[in-house]
User: What shape does this take?
Amino acid sequence: MGTEQEYALLCSMNKNYLQRLNKKTRKEYISMPKTQTSCPRCQQPVLVDVQQVFDMGNDPLAKQKILSNASNFLQCHSCGFQGMLPVPIIYHDPDKELLLTFFPPDLHTPVNEQEKQVGPLINKILNDLPQERRKAYLLQPKSMLTFQTMIEKILEADGITKEMLEDQQKKIKLLEKLIQTPKDDRLAIFEQEKETIDISFFSILSRIVESAMAQGDEKSQKPLLELQEQLFEHTKVGKELFSQAKETENAIKSLQEASKDGLTREKLLDLLENASSEAQFSTIASLARSGLDYAFFQLLSGKIDAISDGKEKQKLITLRENLLVITEEIDRQMQAQMKNAMELLEKIISSENIEEELEKNLNGVNDFFIQVLQIELSAARKDGNLEKIQKLKQIMIVIEKASASSEEMKLFEDILDYKDTNDLDRLISENSEKIDQNFLEMMNNIINQVQNQKNQPELIEKVNTVYKAVLKHSMKKQMKVN
Assistant: This one.
């Protein structure tokens, strides 16, 4: 597994990733232009998704695509050959002032001819940028000798060093080795590789498990979960992580129990005093941050002043100091999130095309962004700033539309979970009003996507069954209307 696949595995393992994309972006991601070429092994014709320019300025998914080999990847269904299609590639990230070019050596193209071919593509990138963002780095693109070097340069700009990638590669190879090793023979490997089996190792495994679950890959899921359970039971780090997870679970339960009749500051203080571990203490403090207010600390300080026992007093003083550190860190993170949300909102408002700019940055729309949006809308109304009110409302409309697209995806997932034919018909009938042309278009895109997943025949069959049933229902509904 190459470095780019490893990193792509980690950055793309986001449960229901396509759900978070608006309809327009999903279509662009799934339906890239195809070019017919010949398989280098058997010479049979093959269709390939070809993309030469990966511009983060125009496409927020550009980095995902180049790292995950979503483009320019040749897969021959006749002989099974897989490999990258040799095409010139340009990668541009305006925020990091990064412009990279790669010309495959296999093409044997002279340097002057290379410049002629990539020149128009770079000019297009330059012309698409507003005047104030056209900087000197655009006149000096960095030429990468290999595709691997280009990937490493992109990751380096994200703070991911070559050493980090090599460490990750080592961990992934160990995972592959463990999965292929019989269960009883793994304990010796656990001992030999105890330095490699650290928290980041578990993080990689966890993400792979999540990915298998999200894709419905039951065949891969079972051995991965068995390995994870064995690692929790027989490795030092695994035991620690499992213990922390149980402590966190217990903390949540105790907080839920205390909240049944209303969570008071006195109850919260009692929970924190009796927390059996640092993990429990931190979990309770984080989840109940809103309760750790001025009145709470007054209550705690009053209790400290009333205690005469030196040991108990110091215990509470330490508790107060720890809580102040935790709340300060939580507040710092929240302030940073609010600042980022405000900067994004200002960027969108100041753009010439608000809807287009927002669609580019939909991944940045979270609870903090919505909160900032509501605060700014309230302030604009108070000031009577009609122009700003109109722009902010326009942003809210686009977000609502994007949310509606996510609702379409959720509906599809609910229908896909049918138990039998009768249940499928029932689900479709109950949601008949929601099944419109937009829903059918989304399903068509999903069909195109899953057809390429040859390792999941059950999923393909199920999606096709749902699609045919939905299409049939839609046609009957149209006939009744007409």
Observations:
- The mean pLDDT is 82.
